[in-house]
Amino acid sequence: MTAGGLMPAGRFPLPGQERLKVLIVTDAWRPQVNGVVTTLEMLGRELRALGHEVRYATPQGRFTLPLPTYPEIRLAFFPRKGLEKLIGEFAPDAVHIATEGTMGLSARAICLKHGIEFTTAFHTRFPDYVHARFPFVSANYVWGWERWFHRGAIATMARTPSMMRELQAHGFRNVRLWEGGVDVDHFRPIPDASLPYPKPVFLYVGRVAIEKNIEAFLCLDLPGTKVVVGPGPARGSLARKYPAAKFLGPKSGEELVRIYAASDVNVFPSLTDTFGLVMLEALACGTPVATFPHDVMKDVVGACPAAALDPDLGAACRRALTLSRTEARAFALTRSCHASTQQFLGNLVVEQPQEA
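Structure (tokenized):
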């Protein structure tokens, strides 16, 4: 036993050869509604279905405070003692640190102190987000902090090949690919789904925040109705500026599936996302996608015959109206969450990183 009573995580056989105990540490959790939370919930369900034991370490049940402009995001304060107890009692075979907040920082410190191997994931482009909100803060400074945070992990998981290359270009080591998948049983076409708005319906799903580039969608001259689903600090100001658009707030579960299925096009204007899970959710519901030909978007839906990628987002939206809903669903079936989970498991067994 090491100091503090924690046993360093040992090497285990390749995933699939035994039942693993996996601890997922995340600052992003309910009541937040975003791609990170959805991905981690889906990962846990899939791991359990494969016979593995999963526990989450989240801000729930801890002393938390909301961020000033993000009331749905609550940071845990002083979580280290509770985390150390959880790790000692659960004795995980694998620790995955999903986010870089106070939970992630504490878990990282515990693992390094006790020689416990851990993996991380790069879900959010904080350098771009911070610079968008605080232009006086250099993105290079934030990239340096990100390198420090992920250093020491046996693998840092990137969501797309282009994101993997970008991280490597920024000096990240031990970067592994963990492509996202979608729950095609939950997200599905619903033939009688409808919305009480003039058609065609152009749908945005995601955080309503400046870094999501939503105004590139809202300012377009398009027929029908623009619908925005999701929480975020810019919701009030954008609703006042674009009164013709329908801002429905956060939606989840079957209600969200019906909204996807009832829409004609899912519009994804972000230039800063590391994956864009909502595009796969929409495609699984049979709804074509319109987006920019950004490297990450090309990785995710560039090969999809039901996705229109164009530097002119309006042109992409109009072309998406002509694309096949059947082909949208067929493409999503090739990107199921099952393959994503197997890729995640494979990333838990890698060679120990060597310091330069």
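DSSP finds 14 helices and 14 strands in the chain. The domain at 201-335 is CATH 3.40.50.2000 (Rossmann fold).
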